[in-house]
Every structure is written in structure tokens, then in C-alpha cells.
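Exercise: predict the fold of this chain.
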Amino acid sequence: MDIGILCGEKHVDITVPDNTTVLTPNSADGLQDPEGKVADAIAKPIGTAPLSEMAVGRANACIVISDITRPVPNHQVLPPILKTLEAAGMDRDKITILIATGMHRPNEGKELESMVGAEIMANYRIVNHFCRKAEDLRHIADIDGAPIELNKHYLDADLKILTGLIEPHMYAGYSGGRKSLLPGISSYTTMTHMHSFKMIDHPNVTNCRLDGNPFHEAGNQVCELAGVDFIVNVVINKAREMVGVYAGHYEKAHRTGCEDVAKLAVQCMTDKVDLVVTSAGGYPLDATFYQVSKGLIAARNILKKGGAIIVACECREGMGSTEYCELISEGNSPQEFFNTRSNPENFVIDQWCLQTTYQALDHASNVYVYSPYLSKEDLGNLGITKIDDIQATIDRLRAAHPQMAVSPEGPYVVGQVDQSAAA
């Protein structure tokens, strides 16, 4: 059968045997009048009063949005929120849109315009979060000894609103909800604790799990401490059309959305496989190799020990941050990395993403990367093989890896194997 694997804004076509397990999201039609559905959701929310009532008498508002790495349809989500606030008597100059960059770079210029639209960009105050900009951060509490520091633009707002996209997430179980705060607008210091080696190594810090997941639970604690008045989260389909809107209480509305995402994005498997062919999710998620760990760890979770992974990723912006590239250049084996970075005194920024990559490398016998923008030298120190022809690599590996799974959407679809399946 013929399958297209997401890579950037295009697909890489492959042909695989008919008995291949193909992990694709369950179909869901895009909403008719999505902007109207957002307006309906904020008028009839889950677990809170309507946004129109909550906005009355509030002096100002902060709306947190995701950064460029998340394909949130802000041009459909933001207008109903902004109209509701203004109809309640709030002037535009009292509304701040805060971009939850986490530890990523800021979003500006044409990139920002592509995220929110020219009209919103021209008429509203939009601020990027900088995790190391001390003057914009404030300590509010400690969780298990970890200092919680958040952006003061949010903390000082009289009305606090979170927006985002709900999809499977390799640490938080699902994105959206509390992730807008942790790590979205948290400080570097906070994230050295919340993205520590110990946290990422926890067995319950994984895709599609909320209960018992310490990363998810820490996020909810931060929501309680900082305050969240209202959320507007959405779910999208394969065509990146909006298929669901979940507005209201930060935990109740979010969990309802997660339950619906599970029906779309989780595919059950009876056994693990010898070979996984996957994607890093396409653009914007695969703009850098930094984010490819999400596709790799999802593949690792359905792969037999010693199997092989092939991943397609465009990586038009290269490998990632300077700190991430410096970690790669150390040329450690997975075990050497684990031994060094498990010591909290050796923590460095972006180590969590490489930790996840090494978890996949430690499990698989070989990992192959197809990328039109990366060179063999870029990947050389990771122990990953750069390939130029996915089909030829599949054909070569099939004899030794007869059980194959293909995940064309990468981390947007999660395969879950019965716990009794062989490791």
C-alpha cells in the first residue's frame, strides 16, 4: 500500500506491505463555522460562568496563546474572546496577548502575523514570554522544593485566560490547559526543576496519561497557585481543521477535551513491532530537530527492544538551540548521558529533549533520519544514521524486521500496546 509521511509542509511517499500496521487518527469532520463554535463554547462553558459574565467589571485581561511550534488556529479562537471582552466594557488597550514561548525563541514579524492575523497584530498588545527576563518574572510559591516563577504580565492581570491545543504530549499526557503556564510562561529556574532528569525519567510522565502523572499534577498545582479564570482549548483533525472546542474551567474543560482526543488519536495494538516508520509531525513541529524527540519516543513505545526506527523530519531551522547543539556535540552514549545528567548539579537547558531522544536510541538498535535540511555531520554525534531514501531503507530493513508499523502523523497519533505484549 502507498502512504504519505508528513515532512515539513509536504509528504514523503512510501510503499509498504499490506500487512503493515498503520497508525492514523480516527476521522473527524471539521466544524462548520468554527469561530461561531468558539463563541458558543465561551457562552456555555464547562464548569464556570460564561466569559461574558466573568469579564464584567474586570480592569484588564491577559490571554495566553501558544507559540509557533503549535498549529493553533488563533485566527478563529481569538476573535470571539476579544469581542466578548470588549462587549463587557474592556478597552482594547487593557488586553494583553502573551505568547507562551516556554524556553523557545520569540515569535515576531511575519511569523507573528501568520499566528494571529494582521488585524489582531496591529490592534492589540502582544508580548513574548522570555524565560530568563528576570524583570518580567515573579516567584509565587514552591512545589516540592521547586521555585515557581511566572510571567508578571499574567500574574498582574485581573482576568486570566489560557488558550491552546489539546493533543498527545510525551510528558504532560496531553497538551493544552495547564501547559500554558508550565512550561509556557514559567522561568528557566522553574523549568530546571520541572524538566529535571528525575521528572522526565518517571514512568508515568508519558503520552496520554493524566492520572498519576507528576508533570500533569504539577501543572494543575501551578494553575491553583497562579489562578486561571477561563480556558479555551481546541482539537484539530489531520487537515488541521478545528473539530472540538472546550471552554471554561482549566481542569474540567481540559479533561473533557483530552477524553475526546483519546478517541481520535490513540490506536490500540496487540503487540510491539520490529520497525517503526514515523514522522516528526510536519511543520511547524518539525522546524528543528529539537522537537523530533516527540516522534521518536512515540515510536519507541511501540517498538520491540533492539528494533529500528525511521523518522522523516524537515528541520528547515536546523538542529535547535545553541545549548541543545552543544549537548549533542559532547558525543555521549545514552548511558554516559544518563549518568551525567541524572545529577541535578549537572543540569543544563534543553537536556530533557535530548534525554528523550537518548531513551529512544537506547531502546532501538538503529535510528534512521530522513531530512532535506540536515547533514550527516549535524547528526553525527548522536549515533543516528542520516538517509536520503526512505523507501530504499525500508526495503533493506524489511527482511530482518518483518513486523512493521507506520505512523504518518508522527506524535499526533499514539499507539498503545497491551501491557502483556513482549518488550
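Check your answer against the key: The longest strand covers residues 303-312.
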